[in-house]
Amino acid sequence: MNDNLYILESLKHSSPIIQLVWGISGIFFIIIAFLIIYLKYLRTHLRVNEKIEAKYQEDYESYLVTYLYAGNDDEAFSSEQQLIINELKKCVADPFKRKIIISTLLKLRNEISGEMGESIDTLFNKLGLLRYSLAKLRNKKWEVIAIGIRELTQFKIKAVHKIIMNNINHPKREVRKEMQLYLVYLYAFKGLEFLNVLETSLSEWDQIQLLEVLQLNNDTQISDIKPWLKSSNDSVVIFTLKLAKVYNQFEAKEELIELLNHKSEDVRINVISALSHLNVFEAKNILKNNFNERSHEEQIAFLKMMENVYEASDKPFLLEHIHHKNSEINLLVMEILKNINFEEFEVNEAELKKPLTA
Amino acid sequence: MNNTKKIVLAEDNSVLSLLLKFRLEKEGYKLLIAVDGKQAIELIEEHNPELILTDIMMPFVSGLEVISHVRNKLNMQTPIIVFSSAGQEEIVLKAFDLGATDFMSKPFSPHELVIRVKRLLI
Amino acid sequence: MNTNTVQIIMPIIHYFFLVFTAIAIASYVILAIISALETIEYVKKNSFVNYKEILSSTFSPSISIIAPAYNESLNIVENVRSLLSSHYVNYDVIIVNDGSKDDSLSKLIEAYDLIQIDHLINEHIKTKPLREGIYKSTNPAFDKLTVIDKENGGKADALNMGLNMSKNRYVACIDVDCLLLEDALQKMIKPFLETTDAKVIAAGGVIRIANSCIVKDGKLLDVNFPKTWLEQGQILEYLRAFLLGRMAWSRLNGLLVISGAFGLFDKKIAIKAGGYDTNTVGEDMEIIVRMRRYMEDEKQKYKVAYIPDPLCWTEAPDNYKTFISQRNRWTRGTIETLKKHRKIGFNPKYKSLGLISYPYWFFFERMAPIIEVAGIIYFGILIVLNEVRWDYAFAFIILAYLFSVLFSIVAIVSEELTYHQYKKKSIGFKLVMIAFLEPFVNHPTILYSAIKGNIDYYFNKKKKWGVMIKKGMTKA
């Protein structure tokens, strides 16, 4: 008791700096104590949750599988299915369980097509999960909206098209992207109409996802890509060039050749690549003529194209550039010449090989 | 003499393997499930199944390696059906090069798979 | 000495230490806050991202994994197999056997049916020549693998040869014994593809410590907490650095270092900047600084990204000798890099790189250990001269200690809120314990190795990498 009084006394008499320092130390100590308790709580909570989640997941998985195989041949639900539906409906009210149910459904939905896939979609609707996904769309947090759109995409809910379109100019790009994916997933090429009005950039990540989702749809009815090639949005042009490649759009040949003079180097390189894929011979001559005015990257892209469309008449052109100062271009020229079977190549190869494998 | 035909399934998606197990066991087959390539090879070596179903992308030992191991190291002619979410031609070609019997790309219809299984196990 | 002079000097010295510490603490706090916010934002953005499409697309960019290997015979076959089983589709693996004196090459040849092939390498960057040559597999299942056997030239030289060899757009430079998770590549490539307003030149990942973890068949089965204080302290240190530091620097676009254990680079830019520098022991930091400087000189908008997900697990030193050697090397690497690029320091031409990153690294990474040791020596002198105001000293020491503990505990809580990798029961308690112990256990050793590093740098130029005895991950 006396010691404590002594400490308090000396504290009161010490300089304000020391009082401040001890004060801060005291605060730190309290925060540390609080954090340690919080940590314990957090870890226990997470551990317990995981166990529960695993158990529920197992249950729901077996419910789902049983449901899928308990069906009748006609459209109506069998009694066994009805039982499962009722059981699951009770769980859906609880957000924790609901989340696990949705993720279980999704886990399977992504792997299965055909009748069984549609069966899962029906279950989604029957369980009333649609309501909850729609509610997410009205949430203020962007990540919740995005998840909501995604769920509607994966369960192919067409009816909500209008509501989703409200998000077309949402400030967060993740939301816009989910919306674009929804349109393409459900409507294939018709869904790409947003390209007409898109002002923001389509990143390469977005483009790849859109392309892959398009390919899932076996619909070969591709719409007219020419207007998109003239878009003022460079990323739209580049995306369209990828489309031209994948869907072999020979019809757009003229527009593509025009694009060889586009102001963006990136676009030009992608055009050369697309023309190469489509084996457009006319492009070759155009590019040969203004080869020297083009950037190194374009020259490399062109030479890669040449690997597919070379002719013996290209010999003089190639010989012109055999000593290009860029080593990558050099090698490409050599490769092509080699393919045209030149005796002169033997000499050049020996010369070239010397420094590289020393 | 036990006439039940054994199938080894290598798939790490638990719901999918449960679904397939359910369906194929209804048809009278016995299903052995592995969650990765290494486990698949162990099951194959131990049980000598009549059919192998394997995903291509699996941890550590890929589906391609499983095919290669079965055809080249074990010299077994067991029919192998491969499935993969990646639909690229390259992987399909490699799989057939190595000796796969059939290929299905995901998402697939389980009905279709069962039909193909039954056809190969006649 | 004249008492008046002493009267003047002492307060100045005190104020110097006080100001330095205050700025250091303020910067830690600011970085921690920014880091925490960035990590939360990242986790939100990626909680529902579907990586499936990127996996199978023919348009997904090509990546080469380059892994230099020196005398890794013990585990090389396993490690390579693990690298080959990544879930990404468009990638290949280039193992550069850097003049190993053991049987690494023959083990690989046997395990993967390799044969030697003739191949012309485009020598963008000068390297030591080939030794046994270039090998590829005859088995289509191992199509992705290329093994290069060359004369010994060091890690940087081996990586450069990998850069020369690769025909892909991006290169992932990793340590061959790093355990890469299956989805590491697609997570790391995302920033390169997603950023539209700047060019991403490099991306770094978090390195997690695999000591005592159970690894079977190249798969992380079980995450355990190691037994020694030395290892535990390192885990805490990495948590602080990665969760409360690097994310912030990435946000401020001021990241100066990407761990040599795992980093993804734009190959063209790396080559244009000159590849790795073989004359430094800190090649992982040096190349980033040089690539950034290149982009600044070219006046192109760029970014060095950072992914906080645990994607790469590696072995940390478990004995003092290796630990000191490692930290010694890190110190020398930092000094060498900062010295080589001193032109950018405080140079407004280099904007935030020169005005924020470089000064911070200089004062709080390079000079900090020296200042701390100087402070301790000064304190010792004061004790001898009987000039210590014990009430002040005691109060400040307690404050500093509590701050350090608090910071560590915040790092632990952040880890629980984000990735929660340490699930087992008593680990939480052990983490808190090491938070309290670390200032006494690891910190002095770190200071010692930093000082030794400085001494070695200035007086012992011949020292290079040092050897780390490989023990391999715990087998199940």
Task: Tell me what you see in this structure.
The complex is a heterotrimer of chains A (358), B (122) and C (476). Chain A is an all-alpha fold and 358 residues long. Chain A is built from 19 helices and no strands. Chain A has helices at 2-13, 16-69, 79-92, 95-109, 114-126, 129-137, 142-154, 161-165, 173-187, 204-216, 226-229, 234-246, 253-258, 265-277, 281-289, 296-309, 315-320, 327-339, 343-356. In chain A, α2 runs antiparallel to α3 and α12 packs parallel to α14 (265-277). In chain A, 29% of the residues are buried. Chain B has 122 residues and is of the alpha/beta class. Chain B has a single domain, classed as Response regulator (Rossmann fold). Helices cover 46% and strands 20% of the residues of chain B. Chain B is built from five helices and five strands. In chain B, strands 2-1-3-4-5 form a five-stranded parallel beta sheet, sandwiched between helices. Chain C is of the alpha/beta class. Chain C has one domain. Chain C has 13 helices and 13 strands. Chain C has a ten-stranded mixed beta sheet with strand order 3-4-5-2-1-6-11-8-12-7, sandwiched between helices. Chain C has a three-stranded mixed beta sheet with strand order 10-9-13, with no helix packed on it. In chain C, α7 (229-251) crosses α13 (427-459), α9 packs parallel to α10 (320-340) and α10 packs across α11 (351-385). The radius of gyration of chain C is 23 Å and the shape is globular. The N and C termini of chain C lie far apart (67 Å). Residues 467-476 of chain C have low confidence and may be disordered. Chains in contact: A-B, A-C, B-C. At the A-C interface, α2, α7, α10, α18 and α19 of A face α2, α6 and α12 of C.
List keywords for this structure.
heterotrimer, A: 358 residues, mainly alpha, 19 helices, 0% strand, B: 122 residues, alpha/beta, Rossmann fold, 5-stranded parallel beta sheet, globular
